[in-house]
Amino acid sequence: MAVLKVTDGSYSNIDAVDNLIFYIAARSEISGGWGISMESPESVVSEFRAVKRFWNKNGGRQVKHFIFSWDGRSGLDMNQMRYLAAKLTLFFQPRYQVFWGIHLDTDNPHIHIAVNTVSFTDGRMMTFGWRDWNEFCEYKDHVLRDVERQFRLRKAI
C-alpha cells in the first residue's frame, strides 16, 4: 500500500533548502525536477534561492517536503518509479520549482519531494492548507490509476 505524507518540520532555518536537497540527492538512485537545471545539488539549491531573492521572499518556510512511500516493496521497477515521481510532481510544476529523488536504501522504497515555497511565476508564498492537501491526494490517486494503466499492473500500487 502506498502512503503520501507531508513532513511537519518547519524548514524555516537558513540552511533548510541546502539540507533537504543534499539529503535527497545523496541517497537517491535517481532524481529529477521541474523548473531547475538538475546540473548538481548545488545548482538546485542556488536556483531555489535565486527565485526567493528575485521576489524578495527570503523568510519563513523555505521548502515544503513530501514523502511518497510504500509499506514494503512497491512492485515497481525503476522506470515505473521514475514515471510515478515525475507525474506526482507535475501537481506543483506550473508555479513551483520541484526536486525529487527515489530512495531504495530501506525496506520501504520512497520518493522525496522538495518544493520551493516561493512561486517562480508570481512570487506568492505557498500556502498548503487542507484544501490543497485534498487536491494533492485526489491528484495522487489519479496518478496511481494512470501508472497502473500505463504499465498494465495487475496489483494496485
Short description:
The protein has 157 residues and is an alpha+beta fold. It is built from four helices and five strands.
Structural features, described:
- The protein has helices spanning 16-27, 41-54, 78-89, 130-150, and strands spanning 2-6, 28-34, 63-70, 98-103, 110-116.
- By secondary structure, it is α+β, with helices and mostly antiparallel strands.
- It has a 5-stranded antiparallel sheet, sandwiched between helices.
- The longest helix is centred in the C-terminal third of the chain and has 21 residues, at 130-150.
- The relative contact order is 0.21.
**Distance separating the two termini:** 6 Å
Question: What's the count of strands?
Answer: 5
Give the overall pLDDT as a whole number.
93
The Rg value, from CA coordinates, equals 15 Å
Which class do the helix and strand fractions yield?
alpha+beta
Largest sheet: 5 strands, antiparallel
- Number of helical runs? 4
For the largest sheet, list the strands in their spatial order.
1-3-5-4-2
Order of helices and strands: EHEHEHEEH
Helical coverage, percent range: 25-40%
Can you tell me the overall shape? globular
Low-confidence stretches: none
Strand content: 15-25%
Short key terms for the protein model shown above:
alpha+beta; 4 helices; globular; 157 residues
